[in-house]
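Q: Given only this backbone (341 positions), what sequence would you predict?
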């Protein structure tokens, strides 16, 4: 094990067999962005990886600055919770992390396994937690608990929101409508308080008690339990697909400069939409960066698998892309006309 230093980053991520490739890329990109004098102590939650895949992952991450420690959680504890076609039970395992790790871990970065890390994680780790339980990035297309009440620009913003009220029953839960809502794919956690206050257990209880209202899996429970107990990071630490949902900064929850910086120079790219760079059809602006990172791993010869019925699938993909572009241009034109009136 690496000896602890003042420049050591403690982090965690995890995946199952289906996400082995993006996990390899996520961690490889974190290592490549790490400063020369930094150390990374990385815990990997094994959500069902084969021994061969583990070996392949470790070979992809060879670096004297990095110590990999595997965590084998109790998958059975989360198997009853809802999943989708691109989100597995592994997403719930982050809730158990602080309890699964050594007791001396006081601060921890958690990141999803579908990311591209483009900036030194020592900078993120240096962010002070203060009195907050966690640091995170505001969700771009669900920015507040109730966007209609939280912002005067709601009519302009509403067409681009994925959820105006991501916690639909927030009133019954006593949450403030103007409280910010975060994306849980990137978290800086006060692990000691997390254990002491049983945050993971409270989130599981919340998910069970509010099954009819749960949206976006564990993210719902985390936003309920941590409401007003987290602080917002620079949006560049978690550029989600929502960064490209808005025709301009005016419709987004960000100012002009912050919006421009987020789109052009994200510090972490989060491939959180259903279509990922490892799928055959993907037009993500940072997909080529993902491919370059793949070549730094043991998956260097990988290519996206060509699906059956590629022609009709391709037609539908580009039809939807043109439709989105038409809506974007129309909304932008209407906005300019209104401002000129």
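A: Predicted residues:
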């Amino acid at each position: 094990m690496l000896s602890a230093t003042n420049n050591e980053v403690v982090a965690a991520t995890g995946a199952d067999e289906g996400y082995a490739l993006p996990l390899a890329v996520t961690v490889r990109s974190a290592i490549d962005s790490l400063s020369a004098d930094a150390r990374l102590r990385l815990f990997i939650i094994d959500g069902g990886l084969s021994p061969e895949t583990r070996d392949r992952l470790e070979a992809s991450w060879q670096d004297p600055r990095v110590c990999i420690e595997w965590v084998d959680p109790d998958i059975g504890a989360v198997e009853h919770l809802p999943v989708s076609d691109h989100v597995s039970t592994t997403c719930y395992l982050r809730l158990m992390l602080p309890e699964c790790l050594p007791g001396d871990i006081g601060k921890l970065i958690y990141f999803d396994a579908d990311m591209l890390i483009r900036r030194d994680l020592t900078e993120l780790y240096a962010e002070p937690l203060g009195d907050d339980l966690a640091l995170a990035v505001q969700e771009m297309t669900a920015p507040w608990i109730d966007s209609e009440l939280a912002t005067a620009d709601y009519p302009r913003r509403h067409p681009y929101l994925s959820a105006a009220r991501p916690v639909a029953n927030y009133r019954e839960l006593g949450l403030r409508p103007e409280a910010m809502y975060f994306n849980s794919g990137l978290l800086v956690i006060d692990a000691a308080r997390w254990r002491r206050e049983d945050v993971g257990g409270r989130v599981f209880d919340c998910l069970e008690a509010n099954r009819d209202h749960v949206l976006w899996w564990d993210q719902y429970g985390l936003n309920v339990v941590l409401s007003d107990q987290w602080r917002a990071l620079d949006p560049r630490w978690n550029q989600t697909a929502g960064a490209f949902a808005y025709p301009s900064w005016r419709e987004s929850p960000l100012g002009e400069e912050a919006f421009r910086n987020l789109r052009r120079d994200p510090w972490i790219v989060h491939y959180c939409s259903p279509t990922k760079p490892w799928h055959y059809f993907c037009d993500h602006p940072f997909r080529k960066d993902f491919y370059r990172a793949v070549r730094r791993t043991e998956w260097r010869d990988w290519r996206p698998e060509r699906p059956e019925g590629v022609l009709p699938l391709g037609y539908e993909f580009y039809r939807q892309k043109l439709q989105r572009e038409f809506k974007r241009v129309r909304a932008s034109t209407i906005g300019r006309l209104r401002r000129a009136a």
